[in-house]
Amino acid sequence: MCGIVGFSGKIPAAPVLLDGLAKLEYRGYDSTGICTFDHGEFFLTKKQGRLSNLAEATDDGKNMPGEAGIGHTRWATHGAPSDVNAHPHMSWNGKIVVVHNGIIENYLLLKEMLTEKGVTFQSETDTEVACNLLAWCYEETGDLRSALLRALDMIEGSYALVVMCKDVPGTILSAKKASPLIYGFGKDFGFVASDVTAVLRYTREVVYLDDDEIVEMDAEHVTFLDRQGNEIQKTPEHVDWEISAAEKGGYDHFMLKEIYEQPTAFAKTISPRIRDHHIVLDDISLDEEYLKKLSRIYVVACGSAYYVGCVGKYVIEKLCRVPVEPMLASEFRYCDPLCDENTLVLIISQSGETADTLAALREAKRRGARTLAIVNVVGSSISKEADDVIYTWAGPEIAVATTKAYSTQLAIVDILALYIAQTLKRITKEEYDTILTAFEKLPEQISEILTEENVEIIKQYARQFHQVEDVYFIGRHVDNATCLEGSLKLKEIAYIHSEAYAAGELKHGPISLIEDGTLVVSVATNGMLFDKTMSNIKETKARGAKVLGITNRTHAQRMLDTVDCEFVIPDTEPILQPSLSVVPLQLFSYYVSLERGCDIDKPRNLAKSVTVE
Ligand code: G6P
Q1: Packing angle, helices 107-116 and 126-141, rounded to 10
Q2: What is the pTM for the complete model shown?
Q3: CA atoms within 13 A on the CB side of 77
Q4: In this structure, what DSSP letter does residue 105 have?
Q5: Distance 347 CA to ligand 1 centre (A)
Q6: Ligand 1 centre and the CA of 18: distance in Å?
Q7: Which one of 165, 273, 402, 448 counts the least CB within 10 Å of its CB?
Q8: What is the mean pLDDT of the chain?
């Protein structure tokens, strides 16, 4: 959470910082600030609320002189969103300014120590403590690098810390531990930022910093250091994302753009892994010898990525006959998981930085399990620390509520399941061929769902139902897992209370909440379970529910006989239906949220990259 950007160049820094922050707002958006440096003076502006407030206060950066500066967009942890708690923070003696992403865990102790020395504080933040600690170390050492190294020795927690000092014009010093940080560069400028999207407009040449590394830069120079202060070499990488990938490109919201990008993202993710109608995963080390000993798979993740794991349980168990347990990352760490060298822990994360997921990965490794990460962001902490990584090639996902990352994660889980099943010879060649053929058709079928005519149907349902306050999603088997994601989407962006329940479980409690007009969304695509789900739908209708059914062409007529309205998706293999049935649920949440006037891309209280536990 929190987005940070630093720039040193030969053009005014403030507009560049504002532009970078606009790309990082998805990381947090309750307050923002920038500080520039010009002729020995700091110019600091901080504003509660969205970036537009800061842009207004600084006349789009025009009233902030200087060619070097740092900026921040915040998701509050310590201290409420306010001007004073916003970053950058300036040290009590006016020497140092700092922006920070992460949490300084021992900030109270450090604050007490500094207060005893006469240091004063303005805000409630842990970041101001880091800033004052650094300024105090600077007073003692008289050298910024040494001061940073000394301060880092005393800090416990996570940080991407970006620092400017009054005595070192144009220089920006940054350190990273468990929070993302990249360095981007071009002729006569350097950047540090939380994410490459902030710098894409200016450069595609970046260096991904590892934990415990430090970068010192100005417009023309850069030096990388380890935690002992020794110089180290880092290799730049070229980012091939298009600039347009991080822009709305004519869509009203990033979420809508990303929903429409799903066919392409899906195809891009799977195509390098299918050759001559065969799944090829030669970049990971899960060979037959290892897989034969595999005793259990945990799928560990948070939010929507966890719900991918819930679908994955059905898919992998069905095809591979290996026990699969999806687990929330925040629970995995503390549940004394049964891991040994024959356990595979699948870690799923779009950002590759989610704190709970990263901690779970480390715990799995500590316990001797093999770890395989499914990650979207190249160079992220999880991608680096896992034993193996399979990237989803979804491109940058900006909307807080995930769509294309979810779809591509699911695609990789399907690929992996087929790969393991084939390697272990748990499915016949015919089954493998049939499923793979159906799988390769999915991008085209997702496009079929996204036709104007279909989207119009969803818009109508959104207009009809947008005022409801409670929604129950029901389904069985993989449809139940899809319902979990559909329900989360509605909560996240439309602020509607919703629950997803296994259809057969409804009668054990939640049915008591169904009354006249309650909306029930039912996903029913599985032939074997279709009639059973229909019975559950009838039970809700008998109690006054209005039912929106999602089904495939095979069952469309029979569904329509029972429900109030329906949306029909194409047919595919039963275990692959989730890749299709999630799309109308994404669209439904989007248009309901639009009808309710919510801030779709930046829902209240949420952030996309959750780097706190
Ligand atoms: C946040 C996002 C969700 C996402 C979850 C896990 O809650 O809003 O969309 O599923 O984090 O994020 P990750 O980056 O680990 O996939």
Answers
A1: 50
A2: 0.85
A3: 21
A4: T
A5: 13
A6: 25
A7: 448
A8: 94
